[in-house]
Q: What sequence folds into this?
């Protein structure tokens, strides 16, 4: 396996694995897997599970498998398969040739079901889905036997063959494991392991009309592939006894071992696939790649890098239980990754016109400005200075409050890479009273880089030349949810849950011109604003659209 990713710090899973190695539990090489259902897109929680499996396989010089759990033709699609492969490779967890499909093992899984029936360990049941639930019992009361539980082996084999041949309608019969209807763990109360679904499968077509349940197919697939550790999130812990029962009854040598780790959630976002689907299908967000969503596609479109996501997961470490992590920690990882990588540009999001009255009309000059003060290798760029500029509206205050060190009437500031300017006059709209223009003067002796030390100013502001700046749209993102968590309701009134300020679209911002037109997913630091990425969905040949990845202010570092 590639060693391009650094192994994560030792944790409790390493301890478990090391003890098994010392005991000689496995004679084959380490092999882990990530088994997504191809019915949706990966999210940050998926990345955590992938990272765990990938880095453990890497640490022990083993294999990492990507295996699609495609045993439900009603929900799966090749679109999701392709997207998942693309996302995993983009994240840097490359399975290479080890990409597998659960549906490719259909014959072996069917044979395994026949083997269980032949041992008297499975039976065909004709209870309705509602009756199966009713017979199962509760956490405090045992279940009761299905009236079909004691069918003969021969009758069960015959019925199961007819199920396979399409003789019965959907949901009319199921195959159930025969375990213990009074087991404290409800998952062992004769769980359904096969059901009838008359639907075309995206890979196998109409070859099958019966499909295994995940809890039955999963351990068999693991055993076939030589998986050593089935590492999954903690909500599957109660399913582990069934996983082990299937492998024991089918007499697999050196069966895989299921072990669990904590589930990762982020504050202020939705990580449930069901809720994500509601948001997308309800039109509350701009598709699965909406930059407010924690899907890998959404994070990528917003501008998060694979390195920042992996560093974020490394920083969290291995968790044992379900945990909600402050999203500020992910944003901190993005800043840390981008600060020395990307070039800076000056962009004015809310422009205020400035006319330098003592600068010659028609004159311009090229000023040399560092692309990144933390990385000299990114070089310098030439920015055109002229008589008429734009600055940020927030960088001027007509009646400055205490501690305000930017531009004000009679006050002086430095323009980044340029000169000191002083505000001499404020021009307002006669009808509204809104400030529409500042008349300023500049001091030609104060040019940046000349070594001027005659006086100092406390404020420095960014700017762009009116006649040279390009117009762009900017998308400013905030937390998707009003609060840190979503209600635990089955039906959520999303209009009341979504933060109305989670997306602000600012039209016709002004940005210094680019020597080379930026491409989708190119990233920059907007000086004094934050880190931004060219949006690949809404950018056109005539208009650039930038997504704010994160602002410069780092709330996690403060914490």
A:
């Amino acid at each position: 396996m590639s060693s391009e990713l650094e192994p994560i710090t030792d944790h409790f899973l390493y301890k478990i694995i090391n003890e098994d190695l010392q005991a000689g539990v496995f004679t084959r090489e380490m092999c882990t897997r990530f088994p997504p259902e191809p019915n949706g897109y990966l999210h940050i929680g998926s990345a955590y599970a992938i990272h765990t499996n990938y880095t453990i396989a890497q640490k022990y010089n083993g294999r990492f498998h990507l295996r699609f759990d495609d045993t439900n033709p009603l929900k799966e699609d090749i679109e999701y398969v392709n997207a998942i492969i693309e996302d995993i490779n983009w994240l840097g967890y490359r399975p290479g040739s080890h990409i597998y499909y659960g549906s490719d093992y259909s014959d072996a899984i069917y044979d395994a079901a026949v083997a269980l029936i032949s041992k008297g360990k499975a039976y065909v049941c004709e209870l309705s889905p509602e009756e199966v639930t009713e017979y199962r019992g509760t956490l405090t009361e045992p279940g009761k036997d299905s009236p079909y539980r004691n069918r003969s082996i021969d009758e069960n084999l015959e019925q199961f063959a007819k199920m396979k041949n399409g003789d019965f309608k959907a949901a009319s019969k199921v195959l159930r494991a025969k375990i213990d209807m009074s087991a404290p763990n409800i998952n062992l109360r004769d769980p359904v392991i096969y059901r009838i679904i008359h639907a075309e499968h995206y890979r196998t077509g109409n070859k099958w009309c019966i499909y295994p349940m995940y809890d039955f197919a999963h351990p068999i697939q693991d055993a076939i592939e030589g998986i050593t550790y089935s590492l999954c999130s903690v909500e599957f812990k109660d399913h582990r006894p069934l996983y082990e029962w299937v492998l024991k009854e089918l007499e697999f040598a050196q069966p895989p071992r299921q072990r669990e780790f904590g589930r990762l959630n982020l504050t202020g976002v939705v990580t449930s696939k069901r809720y994500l689907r509601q948001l997308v299908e309800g039109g509350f967000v701009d598709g699965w790649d909406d930059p407010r969503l924690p899907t890998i596609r959404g994070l990528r479109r917003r501008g998060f890098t694979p390195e920042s996501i992996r560093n974020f997961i490394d920083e969290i470490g291995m968790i044992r239980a379900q945990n909600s992590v402050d999203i500020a920690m992910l944003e901190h990882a993005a800043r840390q990754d981008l600060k020395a990588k990307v070039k800076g540009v000056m962009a004015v999001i809310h422009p205020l016109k400035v006319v330098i009255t003592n600068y010659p009309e028609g004159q311009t000059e090229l000023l040399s400005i560092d692309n990144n003060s933390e990385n000299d290798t990114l070089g310098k760029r030439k920015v055109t200075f002229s008589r008429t500029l734009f600055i940020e509206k927030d960088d001027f205050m007509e009646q400055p409050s205490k501690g305000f060190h930017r531009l004000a009437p009679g006050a002086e500031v430095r323009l980044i890479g340029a000169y000191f300017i002083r505000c001499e006059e404020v021009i307002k709209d006669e009808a509204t009273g809104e400030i529409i223009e500042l008349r300023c003067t500049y001091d030609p002796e104060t040019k940046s880089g000349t070594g001027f030390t005659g006086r100092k100013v406390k404020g420095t502001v960014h700017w762009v030349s009116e006649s040279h700046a390009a117009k762009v749209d900017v998308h400013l993102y905030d937390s998707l949810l009003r609060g840190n968590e979503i209600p635990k309701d089955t039906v959520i009134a999303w209009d009341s849950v979504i933060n109305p300020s989670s997306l602000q679209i600012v039209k016709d911002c002004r940005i210094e011109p680019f020597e080379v037109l930026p491409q989708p997913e190119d990233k920059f630091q907007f000086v004094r604003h934050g880190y931004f990425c060219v949006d690949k969905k809404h950018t056109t040949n005539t208009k650039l659209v930038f997504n704010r990845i994160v602002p410069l202010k780092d709330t996690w570092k403060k914490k």
